[in-house]
Write a structure and sequence with these properties.
Helix 3 (70-74) links the parallel strand 3 and strand 4. This protein starts with 11 loop residues before the first strand and ends in a 25-residue tail after the last helix. Helix content is 21%, strand content 26%. Helix 5 packs across helix 7 (198-207). The protein is globular. The longest helix has 12 residues, at 108-119. It has helices at 16-19, 41-50, 70-74, 90-97, 108-119, 134-137, 198-207, 244-247, and strands at 12-13, 28-31, 55-58, 78-83, 102-105, 124-127, 141-144, 150-153, 159-162, 165-171, 175-182, 184-186, 191-192, 208-215, 218-219, 238-241.
């Protein structure tokens, strides 16, 4: 068998701390994950230690209290969030309703497409999702005053008819940095994702000007067949190889068994 060469495309860096060292105050971040599935735990924790502040975060949700992006929220390091729902994070909701945080709620599929479009060089697109609601008509509260009155609200968006349907214009999203987690990746950045971890990690990775991937398994170039690549390496700039113990970390939001009430977020290891 001929020896495969990585042709100088080894993107693996020494640590998560090294990977996020140059994230600056005021940076915008696209962050992968679906609930707590497939989120970049260790990149988020490294960023917390690094100290960057006044961050804009684009993510499906913002973690849960005390975990994932919730850690950055607890430290008041996030000033603006573009997300599809508040989810199980009580602190997220509290900061939004008291005017400490600006929140742009976006339909889930639209959010994914805004990131994918940004990574594809598309400036904007039309979609029927949100037509006839505050998404298109404006007035969606972005930020509140402490007394509960609206401090900032969305503006009306352009609506046009295509193929007999009304559609609203949505701008694409490009961020300074993307933080994602892959199941398997080669040293050139060609990545695979397992099941629902693929939902937001792929479009988030595409949206970042600098995309950093923490990976459960790093293999040599050529070990992942081209047909099995979910994210081409062209979108990836830095890779952090997780230890087996780190790779096993797959927290769940709530553990419920028959006859029991839901628990608080737990760090039980589950396959995702």
């Amino acid at each position: 068998m001929r020896e495969r060469r990585n042709m100088g495309l080894d993107k693996v860096v020494g640590s998560a701390a090294e990977a996020v060292a140059d994230v600056h105050n005021g940076a915008s971040l696209a962050v992968g994950g679906f609930g707590l599935v497939g989120i970049p735990w260790f990149l988020i924790e490294a960023l917390r230690e690094q100290g960057a502040d006044d961050l804009t975060v684009v993510s499906n949700n913002c973690g849960v209290d005390g975990a994932g992006l919730g850690l950055l929220l607890d430290d008041h390091r996030i000033s603006r969030v573009i997300a599809s729902y508040i989810g199980e994070n009580k602190e997220f909701g509290r900061q939004y309703l008291t005017g400490e945080l600006t929140l742009e709620l976006t339909p889930q599929g639209t959010l994914a497409e805004r990131m994918r479009a940004g990574g594809s060089g598309i400036g904007a697109f039309y979609t029927p999702t949100g037509v006839g609601t505050m998404v298109s008509d404006g007035g969606l509260p972005y930020r509140y005053h402490p007394d509960g009155t609206i401090a900032e609200a969305s503006e009306p968006k352009e609506v046009r008819e295509f193929h007999g349907r009304q559609m609203v214009l949505e701008e694409s999203i490009v961020t300074d940095v993307a933080l994602v987690r892959a199941t398997r990746i080669d040293r050139a950045g060609n990545a695979q994702f397992n099941a629902s971890t693929r939902n937001f990690n792929v479009p988030a990775a595409m949206a970042g000007r600098i995309t950093i991937v923490e990976a459960e398994e790093v293999v040599e170039v050529g070990e992942i067949a081209a047909a099995d690549v979910h994210l081409p390496g062209i979108f990836v700039q830095r890779i952090v190889a997780l230890t087996p113990e780190q790779a096993a970390r797959k927290d769940i939001e709530k553990r419920t068994t028959r006859g029991e009430r839901p628990t608080e977020p737990t760090t039980d290891t589950k396959e995702a």
